[in-house]
Design brief:
With 93 residues, the chain is of the alpha+beta class. It has 3 helices and 5 strands. It folds into 2 domains: 1-39; 42-93, HU Protein, Chain A, CATH 4.10.520.10. Helices cover 41% and strands 29% of the residues. A hairpin with a 6-residue loop joins strand 3 and strand 4 (69-72). The two termini are 23 Å apart.
């Protein structure tokens, strides 16, 4: 599912909201998750999962096109850990 499909699905299930209002809600939701992660915080949605960041050390990588060795700086990357309820729903036979 892509963002526009999510907006459309929410608009269909909430006919009292305009498409513009639904788009604003979805944008606010994602913007707040990103803002919190940028502050090195954590976002936990019970039953769904938790978003956080993890540190990656600086390393020497390789350019796959040329094979040249390149330095890759240390950075923080987003991490998602699914919640217990989500794991259970995904693994139902």
């Amino acid at each position: 599912m892509i963002r526009s499909e999510l907006v459309q699905q929410l608009a269909e299930t909430n006919p009292e909201l305009s498409l513009r209002e639904v788009e604003e809600i979805v944008s606010t939701f994602f913007d707040e998750i990103v803002r919190r992660l940028a502050e090195n915080g954590r976002v936990e949605l019970r039953g769904f999962g938790a978003f956080s960041t993890r540190a990656r050390d600086a390393r020497t990588g390789r350019n796959p096109r040329t094979g040249e060795m390149v330095d890759v700086d240390a950075k923080r990357v987003p991490y998602f850990k699914p919640g217990k309820e989500m794991r259970q729903r995904l693994n139902v036979a």
